[in-house]
Amino acid sequence: MGEMRVMGRKGDTKISWNPDNRTEVDEARKAFNAYKDKGFAAFKVSRRGAKREQVRDFCPDAEEILFVPPIQGG
Known about the structure:
74 residues, alpha+beta, five-stranded mixed β-sheet, 32% strand
């Protein structure tokens, strides 16, 4: 199972998918692209936390993808 966590002001939103389920992968890809279009940065993270890398495209085999909201100045 893959999981996408989106950091937000009111807590995290979680989206899960089974990489073997095409419908779930398509829905997760749509969510990934929607957050990316809003300016969020995506990072692929291993469950063990040992490796993190920024990603620009959805990876259905990722263990976890963490979205960080855009920084806003004021």
